[in-house]
Amino acid sequence: MSIDHTLDGSTVLVTGANRGLGRALLEEALRRGAGRVYAAAHTRLAHPDDRVVPLVLELRDPASIEAAAGAVTDLDLLVNNAGIGAVGDDLTDVPLVLEPPQVNLLGPLALTNHLVPALSASRGRVLNVGSVAALAALPVMPSYSISKAAAMSLTQAQRALLGRRGIRVHLAVAGPIDTDMSRALGIPSATPETVAAAIVDGVLRGDDEIFPDPVSATLAAGWDSGTVKTLERANAALLPPADFTTTFVVSKPPADVVAAISDPRGWWDGEITGTADRPDAEFTYRYADMHTSVQRVAEIVPGERVVWDVTSSRLSFVDEPEPWTGTRIAFDVAPDGDGSRVTLVHHGLVPARECYDQCSAGWEHVAGRSLREFIETGQGVPF
Questions:
Q1: Residue 3 above 60 pLDDT?
Q2: Burial class, 273, CB count within 10 angstroms (exposed 0-12 / middle 13-18 / buried 19+)
Q3: What residues are labeled active site?
């Protein structure tokens, strides 16, 4: 999804889309040119715009979450907006305290996890709608405040972890909005429409945190260089490099899978010279004038593992010299029911590499489609 002032042609999913800020975000996505908007709510939402696809979603129900996610074929932007909160609890009723985290934290986490493959495929975005109550609890709404503080921490963790899958994660740090929840507090509030517009502006600018109303806007100055962001970046640096990884399941036994992997002519579309069927064997892969690389077989464990070390490489579509040289391509195979689970990790192919977007897309086809078909049918899938 491009960073400009529109959502032209994008596919968006908004939770809590039947009223309040969720309805305003739905309308804003349509106004900005979204090609399809999944409108998720407790009940099926009727809408005159045929770009709107209603989804029934109950964030307390894992089956409902799975069903809603399963109806989504592709996705550029997930908006986790739905939330609950009530004025007056005093933390003495533990079941009551646990209700907001279920809807404001655990439900959105489960929905996001289900939709990661679609978002990764589109290099998409997640927007979590948070609250200034995450920074300073509202003692008249303590359970809500606790859930939003946890949701802010969740967003920071997702930003680091999902970034490794090419997914950008944003947090709207919202102040009082004129919705059913805030009206109970009797305080000045921003309109849902102005907040929705500011949130979409922030997503399209690429802001990590978005301060979409007059109350939260007072926090914006200095936020990016402040203590919270400094700690977040330092903590994110503790993660190891994000090597490209893809996983799929096939119906064949592990021994057959390893044999298929070791026959790259059957599934890696291009010209291959040499062999890959024994340790220390070496083969050269060429695809037109775009890609040339030499792989040495470092390890073959029948029914378990294949590892290739890349000893030289040239990719004509990037300036980086020998971008694959020194990297390692590892296929791990494990039993999965009556079949096998295959995990490919290209160690050293990380987002910082100039070729990462093109190469990761290439692997998704070569391994996720062509190798998978070759294992199942004996026929690979050309580019």
A1: no
A2: exposed
A3: 144
